[in-house]
Amino acid sequence: MARGWKIDILITVGGVLLLLSHVAAWQLGRRPRTAAAGQAEVLSIGTREFTPGPADLVRLGREHEAAVLAATREQRELEKLPWPEQVDAARAKLPTDADFAALVREGMAAAKTSRGYASAETVAAFGNWLGLDPDAALDFIGRASRRQRIDPFRFEIGRWLGQGNEHRLDELVKRFPQAAWPLHQGAQELCHKRGADFALEMAASLTKPQDRLWLVDDCLDAKQWQGHLARVPAVLADPRVIRRFLSSISGDEDAAILLDEIRAAGFPPEDVAQAEARIARNEEYASNRKREEEKDRKQREESASALTRQLGLAGTNPFDRDIPSEEQQLEKLAPGFTDALADLCDGRQSMEEVLALVQRSWPTAFSDPTVAADLRSMLFDAAFITDPLGTLQEARATGRDFNQEAENQLDRLSPEMTIRVLTAYPEIIQEKEQAAFSLYFHRFKPWQNIDPEGCRHALLAVPDEVLRTQFLESYDSHAEEMRAKGGGP
């Protein structure tokens, strides 16, 4: 049986039926009418009135759950796309007659409340607003940039600038000084997309040499500058600005490919000499880094799990975005794995059901019990973060011990949830003094620094005497250090 709720309703009490019929009415898009106490609600659909029975409510609940699941899966697929494609997908869903300004204001208010970035829908609405009323949109994003993160908007601003507005950058920055940074981000995004010739033409349209540098500095990589450096001195036109530009591009990790061109482009000899020296230092640094990366690769390969080896990922860097993740590889071998993993985290599937899916599509993996064990650990880790208590309960029901996996994941939980887990399952770190101290250091010490009384109160509630004593000893030791430095209570 999967964790989470299942809709299996048997209604025998009129009051419960009344409550659930309001839910059913909401699902049908109708406002529920008031019924007398103890009577079942009467719903209207078209010209027909009926009293929903248990089967109707079950059906409506399941339809709602299926719709939510479909929307969740669609959102997950969208989030796999590059950001501009996510925005384009959101734009396609916006009504053409929508109040885009209102949508942007609402979206930015929500992002401010959550302290996050604006959604793809908000950015798409901003792009439409910018096309219809650029003055109002630029004024808004300029003011918003002083209080919120506006990085996601740079693609839309760049797209708009590229629609015949690329030579208006000077004018726009003067008219909307608060929007100078968003305009700069958008202009650089546009230049990066269109290349060096376009970037130099756009820079030439700016009045001041430092503004031209402001546009092209750190905008293109070394490969994009190849074949174009001879034009730079004439466009930048100021010796100090040219020196700063040359210093910047010579710091690129691939700058060695530009060395001959730098020597021939007409830059001042002293600037060329500095660029040569910097490129030589960077090459030495890059050589050392490659040796370290190869050493790390071999260590990862030696320590790779059986599952990682079976997936062909032994030795790969998990932070390299060009390398598929274990989840992506499993999706290829067992189509539907990504959705099943999400369902596991949401409580709609059990670990055994997900394992069965993989085994049907990739039976050879289960011929090696170590691979199967690794896969179980992977699923446990994913589910544990979203529902630690439910995951541990399910794991115990299978008769398997996941204490080590749980211990490894504890410091990813909130302090409060960590205490709840250890209250129910103290054996996870019992008789592991170092594990208890590590948990205190990563989870409870930061809490103690902010709210020492609340932290101590929570630690006192840990029912296991050994763990409670270990945590409190660490707490008292840190409190003494804080008092010695004059920062403790």
Written account of the structure:
With 489 residues, this protein is mostly helical. Among the domains are: 14-79, no CATH class; 83-194, no CATH class; 326-398, no CATH class; 401-489, no CATH class. It contains 27 helices and two strands. The protein has helices at residues 14-27, 54-79, 83-93, 100-114, 120-132, 134-144, 154-161, 169-175, 180-194, 196-204, 209-216, 222-225, 232-236, 239-249, 259-264, 269-303, 306-310, 326-333, 337-346, 351-361, 369-386, 388-397, 403-409, 415-424, 433-450, 452-460, 465-484; strands spanning 43-45, 48-50. It has a two-stranded antiparallel sheet with strand order 1-2. A hairpin with a 2-residue loop joins strand 1 and strand 2 (48-50).
Shape: globular
Distance between the termini: 49 Å
Main sheet strand line-up: 1-2
Cα Rg: 30 Å
Give me some keywords for this one.
489 residues, mainly alpha, 2 strands, 1% strand, globular
Care to give the gist of this entry?
By secondary structure, the chain is mainly alpha-helical. Helices cover 66% and strands 1% of the residues.
